Amino acid sequence: MSHENHLLQKRITLFDGTSIVSGAMIGSGIFIVSADIARSVGSPGWLMMVWLISGVITIIGAISYGELAAMMPSVGGQYVYLRESYHPLIGFLFGWTTFLVIQCGSIAAVAVAFAKFSGVIFPWISDSNVLFSIASLNITTTQLIAILLIVFLTWLNTRGIVTGKTVQNIFTSTKVLALLGFIILGLLFTKGVNSLSADRDAFWHASRIGSGGEIIPIAGFALVAAIGTALVGSLFASDAWYNITYISGEVINPKRTVPLSLLFGTLLVSGLYLLTNYVYIRILPLHGSPDGFDALAKGIQYATDDRVATSAMSVIIGDYAAIVMAIFIMISTFGCNQIMILAGPRVYYAMAVDGLFFKKVGSLNSKGVPAFALILQGVWSVLLCLSGTYGNLLDYVIFAVLLFFALTILAIFILRVKKPEIPRPYKAYGYPYIPALYIIVTVIIMVILLIYKPNYTFPGLGIVLLGIPVFYLWKKFNNPKSSNDELI
Fold first, then answer.
1. Is 192 helix (H, G, I), strand (E, B) or coil?
2. Which of 44, 199, 264, 475 stands the most exposed, by the fewest C-beta atoms within 10 Å?
3. What are the tens digits of pLDDT across the range 332-390?
4. How far separated are the first and last CA of the chain, in Å rounded?
5. How far is CA 68 from CA 64, 71, 407, 438, 488, in A?
6. How many Å apart are CA 85 and CA 422, to the nearest integer?
7. Model confidence over 411-441: pLDDT tens digits?
8. Which value, in Å, is the radius of gyration of the alpha carbons in the chain?
């Protein structure tokens, strides 16, 4: 494998790493997706179970990635693991999908979420406020704010890793404390709200909403399928924890720091997510009516615009809830986008060093960061914002992301056989059973998605497979700088 560029600065500590993991995970999903999960499983108990399963899967994935991170503490993270375990093609397909959709699509989506919640405070920011039109493309104030956020954070991260991590630490600490505040407020000041008591008799009675709005009990495989599809929302609300692996080459003592950051960060956020959902079911009834006159009447299932956290907060503090939660989510999405914008270019940088991306992307500026990769990522993210297609693209790659997760954990088994001599300062907990369990659960979810959401899964596979001819064309017209036959 190629040596790391000497300009890379090792500045990330354990606190920084934990902040990056937890900050990347906490975006806007935790405040919204519980409504869709509640509609899928139809009971408070199974709502909590979906979040528990999601937390366990995330933590298992994180502690398993730790072995790979300790073996290969290189810039590029998951791209490097896949390249070394299988073939450069597999690493390229991951990097291709990451740039084309996963990272840039997520950046665009989170930036738009930031802008939309800003509109709660500043009504000028609205999807209906069109600034100007180009042909059939309308540029709204929401898109403008989203684009300005991407441009600002892209510029900020060209100033060096120290600047980037400092901003990240501030925003992660703020949103973790704010989420803790929400949980404490929900536990201490809702003794008179009896939603949990009212739902206790039907706590484990799973159901789904029929086409006519009727409640249909579900059990057996139908329940398994409902949980599998519901997990998509909770897993993606917990996603992006692996971004710390992308910047391993800039971490102090990465063989220890990266695995511990993965463990501490995922444990912290998974615990906060469980407590947040407990607050939801403590304050709001799960079932409700789309025509309900207030938050309690609408319930979790029909929370206005799926904003469950806002509905719960409105029961506690009344009319100011929308503004309070908007500020909270703005902080959360700002911090989430900061780490995604910081980390993603390290993958493209590693690809370029291998001759699998534009040569300029494999260069660093005087601050020791891949500035051109940052700019390229920013341009594509802005274009996705303008196109409005990022939401559909993210739906399409759900299957692909899970596939890369499974392949990465499987890489632990492959490298134990293929490269037994490589030092492993940290080994995956519970090997081989715990990593195998992760792969099995992930495959089950993928099968469920193939059966129940084929319109999403097959286009996602198409995006990944489209990278195969691109890989061979790139190999034909570009000579890699160095060989990748050895691990660091």
1. coil
2. 475
3. 999 999 999 999 999 999 999 999 999 999 999 999 999 999 999 999 999 999 887 76
4. 7
5. 8, 5, 12, 15, 12
6. 12
7. 999 999 999 999 999 999 999 999 999 999 9
8. 22
307-316 exposure pattern, b = at least 16 Cβ within 10 A, e = fewer:
bbbbbbbbbb
Render the burial of 136-146: b for 16+ CB within 10 Å, e for the rest: eebebbbbebb
Structural tokens at position 111: 């930036």
pLDDT for residue 269 is more than 70:
yes
Beta strands 130-134 and 137-140 are antiparallel
User: Domain 14-288+329-477 carries which CATH code?
Assistant: 1.20.1740.10
379-394 pLDDT, tens digit each: 999 999 988 776 677 6
In single-letter form, the type of residue at position 82 comes to L
Residue 192: predicted pLDDT: 58
| Amino acid symbol at 98 | T
Q: Which string of DSSP letters, residue by residue, matches 124-148?
A: T--TT-EEEEETTEEEEHHHHHHHH
List the alpha helices (DSSP H) in 6-43.
Answer: 14-25, 34-41
Take residue 422 and report the two structure tokens written for it.
């490589």
Q: Please state the pTM of the whole predicted model.
A: 0.91
> How much of the chain exceeds pLDDT 90, in percent?
71
Query: Could you tell me the two tokens for 359?
Result: 């040569």
Alpha carbon distance 56, 442 (integer Å): 12
Q: Which residue spans within 27-167 are E strands per DSSP?
A: 130-134, 137-140
Contacts of 350 (CB under 8 A, 6+ apart): 74, 75, 76, 79, 80, 95
Domain parsing of the chain, residue ranges: 14-288+329-477
In whole angstroms, what is the distance from residue 147 CA to residue 164 CA? Answer: 19
Residue 317, token pair as written in the block: 């503090």
pLDDT digits (tens, 9 = 90+) for 466-481: 999 999 998 888 764 4
Spell out the residues 6+ positions from residue 430 whose beta carbon is closer than 8 angstroms to its own: none
User: Is residue 54 within 8 Å of residue 407, measured between CB atoms?
Assistant: no
* CB of 111 closer than 8 Å to CB of 282: no
What pLDDT, on the 0 to 100 scale, is given for residue 158?
Answer: 96
